[in-house]
């Protein structure tokens, strides 16, 4: 008997072996029964098996969607874009095999999987996603064997439409191009994928990203037209519809979208966040759609930034730095304001750019709390803050999704200055705290938000004013922070500052000395504190350059000078006798912008110089354009916005 060979057409989904084990044996999920068969795991005395860490759900060429199976990664050929699929889902790109012990037939009840050991890692060639362009099936084959075969009688010549298959709705979006002959079809599809990255929705598997379930093409030799069809999961409403008809909790929407952005920002920038491109899925979560302008790049030149509306286009802020993922963070802040106020800042409802700016300002003022306003303000100004020494982690989608304002209404906050490194901009942030939080709890949460080095400890200072002539106290890490804030003697007059404290070596407490470093050239009287065994000034300077100063300044010449503190009453000597003044001696004129003037910029309101509409990144002609997307209606309860 001749053994029949089968060919994998595409990858549908993935799961870790450990999760599949839990689903099948613990939760009795029969979807994964095909993984745990005696043919794959032949019984042995030790009940020990070696298998792939990941299993992939595959569709077989020439078979319909009811014939999908789960296969181990070691059986998946790279030709079906295995590397691209893994990378887009943030999986390690090498093949990983594990050794597991379990009983295939668990007659005595569920037994948790134990002693999972990695036994093999096989390195693969790195994948260049920017060159990724999948091969599509012809519509004829797709009609017979597609994951979502379109029923006969549907008019495929519509630019977009919904259809129903086995009680489930799907959404189809078509793109039509003209080509000479059938020989040009493959080249045209590659060009389409180069310009329109929505195809990656067919590979990304995340609960907050709309999935493309199928894609195929049709070539009409009589007209020379090629129609590329994309089939997406159905999401009942677009965010625009929910805002105008039901109202939306902006915090819930922001949290969901940030989770989706965190998943894709490792690969590139979305450039299409808007109330029309955020949909509400059947799983009860908001999802990101419209990957048409997604770019596999971590930076974009100002004139190449894309936006689906002028109100969503980020400001240049007068900086020369390229744009990055903060493009999406900025747009999401504008979307969040529209949710909170149910005011649509869309082109056809505003006659001038000034109208949009005024609505942004009004929406900010109408937010219910300082915490809400602060988060939106930080998102709008993320790029400005990132390029002034703060670092990108604080404003990453993942970090923003952890802000207490989004999920913990029991926390309150107080204004707090923060210095991540010696030469960083002093950022005005808010320190969140619960009634029982210690100073250490608040400080550690702050450091985690900024992605700070685990080798650097941070301490909180308290003062009436961070001026060289004012005193400052280092707060005890075990002190209750709420008690400090509510202290009647200084209530309303406190300023808090979090600074790095280094302990480069282990020594008994009685041998540790506190060193205070002032950097008045840029930071006014803000101190940096180092705790270490006795150091000479050269040793201290070496330590500073290695542990505190950020990379871009480490090659510059620095001088450390003993600081006379006789003129400062009750100042730094309150907690140290070892004070030095740091000077960067080889700075060209205006090489580093004054930190304090930058601080004043950050304090400015959202209107004014920082939001001049004449300095918008990307295409300026967006304003006034009408929405050319077709309106698709299916029922009164469904959104009229196109979904992709």
UniProtKB/TrEMBL annotation:
This is Protein kinase domain-containing protein. SMART domains: CHROMO (SM00298), S_TKc (SM00220). One of its GO terms (cellular component) is cytoplasm. Keywords: Coiled coil, Nucleus. Residues 134-406 form the Protein kinase domain. Residues 346-373 form a coiled coil. GO terms for molecular function: ATP binding; protein serine/threonine kinase activity. Residues 6-97 form the Chromo domain. It comes from Caenorhabditis remanei. The lineage of its organism: Eukaryota, Metazoa, Ecdysozoa, Nematoda, Chromadorea.
């Amino acid at each position: 008997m001749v053994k029949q060979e089968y060919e994998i057409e595409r990858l549908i989904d993935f799961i870790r072996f450990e999760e599949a084990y839990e689903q099948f044996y613990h939760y009795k999920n029969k979807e994964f029964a095909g993984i745990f068969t005696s043919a794959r795991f032949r019984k042995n005395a030790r009940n020990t098996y070696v298998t792939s860490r990941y299993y992939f759900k595959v569709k077989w060429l020439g078979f319909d969607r009811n014939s999908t199976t789960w296969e181990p990664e070691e059986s998946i050929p790279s030709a079906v874009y295995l590397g691209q699929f893994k990378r887009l889902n943030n999986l390690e790109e090498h093949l990983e095999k594990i050794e597991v012990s379990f009983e295939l037939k668990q007659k005595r009840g569920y037994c948790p999987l134990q002693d999972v050991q990695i036994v093999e890692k096989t390195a693969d060639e790195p994948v260049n996603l920017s060159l990724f362009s999948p091969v599509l099936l012809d519509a004829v084959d797709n009609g017979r064997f597609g994951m979502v075969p379109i029923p006969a009688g549907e008019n495929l010549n519509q630019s977009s439409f919904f259809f129903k298959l086995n009680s489930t709705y799907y959404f189809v979006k078509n793109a039509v191009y003209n080509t000479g002959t059938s020989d040009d079809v493959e080249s045209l599809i590659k060009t389409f994928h180069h310009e329109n990255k929505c195809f990656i929705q067919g590979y990304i598997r995340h609960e907050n990203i709309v999935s493309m379930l199928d894609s195929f093409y049709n070539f009409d030799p009589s007209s020379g037209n090629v129609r590329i069809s994309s089939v997406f999961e159905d999401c009942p409403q677009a965010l625009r519809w929910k805002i105008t008809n039901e109202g939306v909790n902006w915090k819930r929407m922001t949290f969901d979208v940030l989770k989706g952005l965190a998943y894709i920002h490792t690969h590139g920038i979305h450039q299409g966040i808007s109330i029309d491109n955020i949909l509400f899925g059947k799983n009860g979560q908001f999802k990101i759609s419209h990957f048409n302008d997604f770019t596999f790049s971590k930076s974009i030149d100002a004139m190449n930034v894309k936006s689906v509306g002028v109100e969503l286009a980020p400001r240049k802020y007068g900086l020369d730095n390229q744009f990055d993922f903060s493009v999406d963070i900025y747009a999401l802040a504008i979307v969040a304001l529209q949710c909170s106020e149910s005011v649509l800042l869309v082109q056809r409802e505003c006659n001038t750019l000034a109208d949009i700016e005024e609505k942004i300002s009004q929406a900010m003022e109408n937010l219910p709390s300082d915490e809400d306003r602060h988060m939106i303000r930080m998102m709008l100004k993320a790029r400005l803050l990132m390029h002034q020494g703060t670092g990108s982690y604080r404003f990453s989608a993942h970090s923003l999704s952890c802000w207490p304002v989004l999920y913990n209404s029991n926390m309150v906050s107080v204004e707090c200055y923060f210095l991540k490194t010696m030469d960083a901009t002093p950022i005005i942030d808010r320190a969140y705290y619960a009634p029982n939080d210690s100073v250490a709890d608040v400080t550690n949460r702050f450091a985690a938000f900024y992605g700070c080095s685990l080798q650097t400890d941070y301490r909180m200072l308290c003062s009436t004013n961070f001026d060289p002539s004012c005193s400052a106290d280092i707060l005890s890490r075990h002190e209750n922070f709420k008690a400090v804030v509510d202290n009647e003697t200084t209530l309303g007059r406190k300023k808090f500052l979090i600074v790095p404290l280094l302990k480069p070596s282990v020594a008994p407490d009685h041998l540790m000395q506190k060193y205070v470093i002032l950097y008045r050239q840029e930071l006014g009287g803000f101190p940096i504190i180092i705790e270490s065994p006795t150091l000479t000034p050269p040793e201290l300077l070496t330590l500073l350059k290695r542990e505190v100063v950020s990379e871009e300044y480490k090659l510059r010449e620095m001088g450390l000078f003993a600081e006379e503190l006789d003129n400062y009453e009750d100042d730094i000597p309150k907690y140290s006798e070892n004070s030095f003044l740091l000077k960067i001696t080889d700075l060209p004129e205006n090489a580093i912008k004054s930190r304090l003037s930058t601080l004043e910029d950050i304090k400015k309101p959202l209107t004014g110089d920082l939001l001049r509409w004449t300095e918008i990144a990307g295409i300026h002609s967006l304003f006034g354009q009408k929405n050319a997307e077709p309106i698709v209606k299916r029922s009164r309860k469904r959104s009229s916005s196109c979904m992709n």
